[in-house]
């Protein structure tokens, strides 16, 4: 069973976060999943794979040089949406066309198909090869109806290697089709699995029994037997996979070459797999096959389901060469991959080297330096207050507001110092600090603070003197943007409850002719009162509603942090 | 629980077999475990690691260029014996000294220590660094008493990288000590695990509870709590590991650099680990640490135990460089390892290129060609009979006699054809075919047939005419060797029951002046009768005793295959 989660509804998102945090060398987070964090000097056909989550290393673990370019990562055991797939395609394609490949399941076919249509209409050449390796999911005569299980890997690897060597889309598609036609798998299971937070297992296998052909989402198998010995399981695997009806066209048992992939589904461990593999290897060799680069481990799992599958990839010379080509991904590394020529790409897919800073005026640079000072002060303040903000948030939320704000302000202050040093104007500095804050903090508050900084920045520009009017107008515009983005109004117990009175007071006071520092002081006071008053409100939106009763009497952490920040900025403005 | 095995008593051996079959690119089987199957052009300090089995990838999965040179692989959760450790040391050392490293457990300390003494007496410079990373196994003041868990990896990696770059033993030992001093881990568990064939779990954790500090063999922990959220677990890990008493000397939290290793113990899956990791990364960064090359996955398991550990490796510049250096092993691959200069080594540790063949006479080469013909005929015969031999063996044994004989005869026939082509004399051809048979077949029958071929070969030599007397004397000597090695006598229902009458009849007939072909024919008939008669015997030795009743009425498969083989050789002799 699955034991570790925070909010079961957020499990897949949390997982992708952690996956990207741990594997930034290979992947970056994009809309709908992950895409490579590096790019080869020459553009390539982009291989985009994907499917539901819960099958690690499928699918994000297979993204990297020599394998996939991106992976759409759906919810647990659920296809990614067309929107997600499209997001990953757009982040991954390099002008040479896109090959989509995924296991043959109805939901995936639907959503990947819709995404393919959408990007084709945008002029991107996009093809699809579905993986159909599970011999028990349909008879040989209807092989195109079969499901995809651990054989995914052979199709992805062949296509990824072809793309890496610069083959055009026609060729990449051809080898993917050829690899799928030469891949056969069968699986068995001893237990089901329980998804995060579920009361009941998603499916079960009776104690001491083995379900033959059970799918990786619990699709019914063909037989229920006693659990055999390790050798007995090896014999079952090999007997079924060497059935003459399952030998791919153009392949032969005697004198043939196969890559055997013995895959654990979660709780059958490596030691057991190796005991089974010893006999699998014997039986295949005795049948006359030569074994190429065997794989024993976890390649396509079903959470912690106890089970295993054997895949045979019947290689010819071309497929063997593609299989053995180097690859370097979070979960699959083979050969000696030369990564020296790779370039890093940023979260938005552009080159990591930032675009050059626009020309800036002396006065805008002076304002930028002041903003950098303010952001450093804010970082220190939030560092001190993070625990308290987390405590308030934990009463009704998930308690991560403090840490999110801390991540965001640390990133923004760092970026600001560097940009001020490089001579950025106020507008560019704020815009890029907003990106840094949002990227690093994640979550809703990160996105909203990113929006605030970049909206204000676009009102200030890099050459104009940042007048009090421009600042007030920028903050009013940012307030509107936050309300749009967050779909929140005053009274919903969010940051908006403090932001609106802050923006309004600032605009009024500046309009009445006060200095920016004085106007800011009054506005900050209004924000503080409003933040305090959120303690009397019930949350008005979404998931937070369920926690309404708990949060009554406690102010909204987003409103509190906004009030603290604007208060802290005042002395910097006054001194500047 | 563990579900897949053949004979629980043979589980660890079977596992090593499958491991080596799947990973021959990196490892070869040696006495006591595995050693690298490649050697770098320049000799290196040899890093020999090890411990009980059941912790994959510890320990065999960490053998390969840039990491360990060999791993002693004990039985399940049991230290390897001193003899095993010594075997791995001798197979791995290259004249530059040896560093032993392993988790600090009493059994391992004892056996590795005895092996160290033994090889030191043989003039090998050998040192030991035990790993002591588990903070809950002893207080900080007694850190040298602590157990080793997933922190093994950092010590092995640092030492292996130092050895790979050609550092002398003093240096390799120094960095291993430094790495251990800067490594801290803590673990939690949600369930115990059940060893192959056991009725009861080895240890348990109450349902829904988390044992804090439970060891990887079930050693008691320090606390039992409810299972926390993923974030809660991350907080527990980080709080305990950042306790001031646990910060290594010379390291600092603010501004420090750590490699975080979030390790699953078996059934906590990658998705869950990534959810936990997201918060671990946050907390470490917010504390002021820079994260270096994070690792999330399985590095030191406890079969399919549900649990996890976090290791912090507090790197300085040197340790960071060693950590990031390339490594290429079955289970741990990092960086871009140039393997082009590596040479393959054979099972006995020599260069893969066989020693040159001794000079041979024309007549001995003619005999060798005849033997190659005979071995080809035997291979075909056994190919036809393998299923039947397996069937007989399955009645009282494990049913693998047919497949073992098939592996052995295929390997011997292949080797014979190549050696005859290269001009080998009869003696060398038989000796090397015996090695091939034994290596490839494994098991007792493989060892016995290897012994038969090489003993006969040493009686024939490469220059003498292989006379009938020499052949008969060789077969008599081989019979004695088989009885010694197998501790079997006539009447024990083994191959010996057919081999003794075969050898005796052959010697008698040849002594009486018959041609070799005629004498062989009579001897083969005697073997056939004797093999048939084993159906009336009860097994006389070891484990087979329990199966005595079942096998009554069925002949011994080893005796049957011997009789079949000698019968098949007759027409080749008669024609040759």
TrEMBL record, chains A, B:
Q: Where is the DhaL domain?
A: 369-571
Q: Which Pfam families match?
A: Dak1, Dak2
Species the sequence originates in: Sinomonas cellulolyticus
Tell me the superkingdom of the source: Bacteria
* Protein's name in the database: Dihydroxyacetone kinase family protein
In this chain the DhaK domain maps to: 7-332
Q: Which Gene3D superfamilies match?
A: 1.25.40.340, Dihydroxyacetone kinase, domain 1, Dihydroxyacetone kinase, domain 2
What is a single molecular function from GO for this protein?
kinase activity
